[in-house]
Amino acid sequence: MADSTHHAPIVLDEHYTFPPLVRRNLFIAIGIGLLLFIAGILLLIYAPHEAAHGAEEGAAAGGEHHFRWQSRLWTNLWLNNVYFTGIAAIGIFFVAVQYVAYAGWSSGIKRIPEAFGNFLPITGVLMIIYFFLGGHDIFHWTHEYLYDTADPRYDEIIAGKKGFLNTPFYLFRMVFYFAAWYILYRLLRKESLQEDLTKDVRHYDKSIVLSAIFIVIFAVTSSTSAWDWVLSIDTHWFSTMFGWYVFASWFVAGLATITLTVVFLKEAGYLSIVNQNHLHDLGKFMFAFSIFWTYVWFAQFLLIYYANIPEETIYFIERLHGYNGTYKGLFFINIFINFLFPFLVLMTRDAKRHMIFLKIVSIVLLVGHWLDFYLMMMPGTVGENAGFGPLEIGIVMIYASAFILVVATTLSKAPLIAKNHPMLEESIHHEI
Predict the structure, then answer these.
(1) Which of 21, 32, 234, 411 makes an SS bond possible with 380, Cβ 3.0 to 4.6 Å?
(2) How many DSSP H helices and E strands does the chain contain?
């Protein structure tokens, strides 16, 4: 790929074949992940734990509680479920944005993010299960005594949020998010596959309408789901920028996943339509939205810093100085790995056009934004009892392997390139 334009024949009727060896290795990885998961649980059960103030109930509980190993278990499961839900939803969002923007350059790779949406039913079901089984360990607001004025543990602030933070309404919102995202995804996918069978431009026009509807819904639900699934862990704390912050983290992780998939498929001999110019655009997306994530992170931090209001600053104080400094190192690593590293590596034009650089940055960003969600969730649930061990590694292996299995299976069931997309010619001759 030394030249920026195509000199090799482009095959539009490409079909991805899911190698049996890769499939087997993914199942082996899931098996190893399960073993690590079980080992991690056993270590938590039998390892001695000292009393941790407020670890079970979260930073805002204000009481003293002994650490429950279940808190770390359920928070890790919740963290990974939210993280991979976001990547799946961003795949749909990316496709929708391309349609609404009448973008042509991405038409040759749109089947990759399009495949992400099939992971949503899995995370949707698991999200409901986790909430029922581990909700009390993750969310302080789920405890009934907080709303009983006769109970000494009554919390006036949390009781004031009961109209929004109550289990029936919470579950309704959760079901609505997944149902709305997945239904619109299936409709978009249907039009995309029908377009392969006919050259009828009406499928393209319908996709634009469906994409516009999805973007409007996602504009609201990406923020409200962030409030529900992440922000409500620290029930007393609030931030008007938090929805944007979670979206930015999801979006960068989603872009990294798209880029990494394109690179791996290209290296495997697929996607003959992709040239250095497509890679350059994907690199620019990662570069730009890493800066956007940093902007939102810094804006949120700066507003809270100079206002210096105790109920706002507690969030950052806990992560910088609280819990015996458990999160201080990660706090600064988060900034380096999600901003400085991609900024410096992808700054030049050439770096964005070479697969090795894109591969490295994509992997680093996926790890970095997982750590970002880790910092959002762990202090408010397990406090100083957080850590990285077999439990954390095992759960990540299970989720990552399952995600790859679903995406690869979806890619193998349809042509890899939307050959009748009306703007495919623009993608073929894309040059910047």
Answers:
(1) 234
(2) 15, 2
